[in-house]
Design a protein that fits this description.
This protein is about 35% helix and about 10% strand. By secondary structure, the protein is of the alpha/beta class. The strands form four sheets. It has a four-stranded mixed β-sheet. Strands 6-5-7-10 form a four-stranded parallel β-sheet. A two-stranded antiparallel sheet has the order 3-4. Strand 5, helix 1 and strand 6 form a beta-alpha-beta unit. The relative contact order is 0.17.
């Protein structure tokens, strides 16, 4: 659960007349700490949120600005793992790519660029020189393939979560009780964790089109990050691979510590605070979502998802080591970021036609900026809604079929397919044959 607290504003908003309208100013933001009030250091610097490629006056061709002693990093690959909050976090990378007019490696249709294998040439939109600045849609990590498309100074970023909560989310989203033939079970996660090996003959799904046997209950996150499914019980191989990932990746964030992860991302990438604001998406509710496994069940899961737990433990340690190197004010910035992000969320949720812009004044960690209707629209958009400007008018192409549909199909005794149109044709032929 992403933690939020509403910002306390101790003075009234000051209304300023700007171009015939009003802008709200958060004039004095105060923190409550140990029953004392600490005031943020504020600076009067104008740096409004702008549209793609515009400066604060709406002019094209923004000059790259140095933030402190670093330059913003504008080449990145975000490996969007599954059921780890990537619908929420991908929006951050999409916004940045759009605002800075980056050359994005994007699928010709749909959202996923690939699954299980590296993308085929016909599955993504090509640049003239076959070099790219950014990637953020679902794609199985392949170091060799990606380094042929992105320069050496590219930042590699991903996000993972505590494996038992990832399993719980996957159990619901991928219709796994159907796949595991659990009938009349109120909490399929608890039932599964009593003896995961009991269900192995059902949980392993073979994808005909790419000849991969994959288990959505097992090392899901490791698989997304390129570790082969057949290596589930090879501990030494897993350790070597995860050690290599730790070297290759600039940052692997943790969903349980999303605010800390995003502040660290901002600092490592030298981005602005408004670049990493987020709105929580796809926060589904179901009966067993908050059930807590017993110690025995977690012990079973640590053996079953051993590679994912090794992955999580490694990058949990890595995250806090990187945070410790950031200095004394890091946690102050996290507190400030959480409060302002909550305030921006509230403003965007309640904004109506004609509502004045919200101006957040400068602090030690951000320049002054405005939140307007366009910013709210973009930050609240789904991944697919922001794909249109990224495709730049490209039409055609075949959408990669979601692995979710393929898992559901296998649970019904049906075939798996790579493309959505193949599945549609298959369903049409089955329906026709029943008449």
């Amino acid at each position: 659960m992403i933690r939020r607290r509403r910002m306390k504003i101790t003075s009234a908003f000051v209304a300023l007349l700007v171009c015939g309208g009003f802008s709200y100013y958060i004039s004095t933001t105060m923190y409550k700490s140990n029953s004392q009030t600490q005031s943020l250091q504020l600076h009067n610097i104008d740096n409004r949120i702008t549209g793609p490629g515009e400066d604060i006056h709406g002019k094209r061709g923004v000059t790259e600005r140095t933030t402190g002693t670093c330059m913003p990093r504008k080449k990145f690959v975000f490996i969007a793992t599954h059921k780890t909050g990537t619908v929420t976090t991908s929006n951050i990378f999409q916004r940045y790519a759009i605002n800075h007019k980056l050359a994005v490696l994007v699928a010709t249709a749909g959202n996923p660029v690939s699954w299980g294998r590296s993308p085929a040439e016909e599955d993504y939109i090509h640049t003239p020189d076959e070099q790219y600045d950014a990637l953020f849609n679902h794609l199985t990590y392949n170091k060799t393939w990606l380094r042929s498309k992105f320069p050496a100074n590219t930042a590699y970023i991903s996000i993972i979560r505590e494996p038992s909560s990832q399993l719980t989310s996957a159990m619901h989203y991928y219709f796994l009780p159907n796949l595991l033939q659990m009938r009349g079970v109120s909490n399929p996660v608890n039932e599964f964790l009593l003896n995961p090996w009991k269900y192995r003959h059902l949980s392993e799904v073979h994808f005909d089109f790419c000849n991969i046997t994959w288990d959505p209950t097992r090392n899901f996150m490791s698989f997304d990050l390129g570790y082969p499914a057949e290596g589930a019980e090879d501990e030494e191989r897993a350790r070597r691979y995860i050690s290599e990932l730790e070297t290759d990746f600039t940052l692997v964030m943790l969903l349980e510590y999303l605010d800390e992860s995003l502040v660290l991302l901002r600092r490592l990438m030298c981005w602005e605070m408004q670049d990493v604001f987020y709105v929580t998406k796809n926060n589904r509710t179901y009966s067993y979502k908050k059930a807590i496994p017993s110690k025995e069940q977690i012990s079973n899961l640590r053996k079953w998802k051993a590679v994912d737990y090794l992955l999580y433990d490694t990058f949990n340690t890595s995250l806090w080591r990187k945070i410790a190197a950031q200095g004394a004010d890091f946690h102050e910035e996290v507190y400030y970021f959480r409060e302002v992000n909550t305030n921006v969320n509230t403003y965007c949720d309640e904004r109506q036609e004609g509502t004045p812009n919200l101006t957040v004044v400068a602090s030690r960690w951000n320049l002054q900026f405005e939140v307007d209707a366009n910013f709210c629209r973009v930050i609240q958009s789904r991944v697919d809604q922001l794909m249109v400007p990224l495709r730049k008018g490209h039409k055609g192409g075949r959408a990669i079929l979601s692995e979710r549909v393929n898992v559901w199909a296998v649970s019904r005794g049906q075939r798996t397919f790579k493309y959505t149109d193949e599945r549609e044709q298959y369903v049409k032929m089955r329906n026709e044959s029943t008449w």
